[in-house]
């Protein structure tokens, strides 16, 4: 790229071009290989644009039934520098309401994903937001969809998801403090018998 005409453009203008090309107004699904092709053009462009893509977009993790383990592996595989640059990570789960049954994505999957994010040690507490989507079965009349019960269930589900993140983050922070304490005060550690 050294001899290209694009390289002769001032860095500030190139950065503006990269920002326009790599940022979106809505969140991007967090998955393997979702970096744009522009980041693969050359080493120089990759160095100039990688921070723009990760720091300039919000990312969403869509939690579906049984996806917790797969999503935890995905989170573990993401470069910690990239993960720390993301302004907002949205964890989305669903609350399904029908006349016959009331089911939702099991909280186990939400908990697994929250724990995986907390385990990375680079994700700030404020980076993670919870989102719950209401899904109605087609047999449910419109007047029931607006009932206070439905809204109450939605708010309760969101509160539980937020609580799971609080617990995961707090537990990880406590473990970090214990690790630091043990490094600084090795005489307090008990030797296994």
| Domain tally | 2
Distance between the termini: 61 Å
Rg (C-alpha, Å):
22 Å
Estimate what percentage of residues fall within beta strands.
Answer: 5-15%
Biggest sheet, in brief? 5 strands, mixed
The gross shape turns out to be: globular
* Helical residues, percent: 40-55%
Uncertain runs: none
Arithmetic mean pLDDT = 79
Number of helices: 7
Number of strands: 5
* Structural category: alpha/beta
Order of helices and strands: HEHEHHEEHEHH
Structure notes:
- This protein has 193 residues and is of the alpha/beta class.
- The chain folds into 2 domains: 57 residues, no CATH class; 124 residues, no CATH class.
- β1, α2 and β2 form a beta-alpha-beta unit.
- The N and C termini lie far apart (61 Å).
- The mean pLDDT is 79.
Tell me briefly what this model is:
The protein has 193 residues and is α/β, with parallel strands linked by helices. It is 49% helix and 14% strand. Strand 1, helix 2 and strand 2 (59-62) form a beta-alpha-beta unit.
Name the descriptors.
single chain, 193 residues, alpha/beta, 2 domains, five-stranded mixed β-sheet, 7 helices, 5 strands, 49% helix, globular
Topology:
Blueprint: H1 11-22, E1 28-29, H2 43-55, E2 59-62, H3 68-77, H4 80-85, E3 89-97, E4 102-104, H5 107-119, E5 128-136, H6 142-145, H7 148-184
Parallel strand pairs: 1-2, 2-3, 3-5
Antiparallel strand pairs: 3-4
Helix pairs in contact: 1-2, 3-5, 5-7
């Amino acid at each position: 790229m050294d001899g290209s005409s694009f390289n002769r453009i001032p860095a500030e203008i190139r950065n503006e071009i990269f920002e326009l090309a790599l940022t979106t107004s809505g969140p991007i699904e967090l998955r393997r290989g979702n970096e744009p092709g522009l980041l693969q053009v050359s080493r120089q462009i990759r160095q100039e644009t990688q921070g723009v893509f990760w720091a300039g977009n919000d990312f969403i993790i869509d939690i579906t039934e049984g996806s917790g383990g797969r999503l935890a592996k995905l989170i573990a595989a993401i470069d910690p520098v990239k993960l720390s640059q993301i302004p907002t990570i949205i964890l989305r789960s669903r609350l399904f309401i029908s006349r016959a049954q009331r089911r939702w994505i099991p909280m186990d999957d939400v908990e697994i994903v929250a724990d995986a994010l907390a385990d990375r040690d680079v994700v700030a507490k404020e980076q993670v937001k919870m989102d719950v989507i209401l899904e109605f079965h087609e047999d449910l009349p419109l007047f029931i969809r607006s009932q206070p019960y439905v809204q109450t269930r939605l708010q309760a589900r969101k509160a539980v998801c937020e609580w799971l993140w609080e617990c995961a983050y707090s537990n990880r922070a406590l473990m970090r403090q214990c690790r630091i304490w043990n490094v600084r005060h090795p005489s307090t550690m008990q030797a296994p018998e």
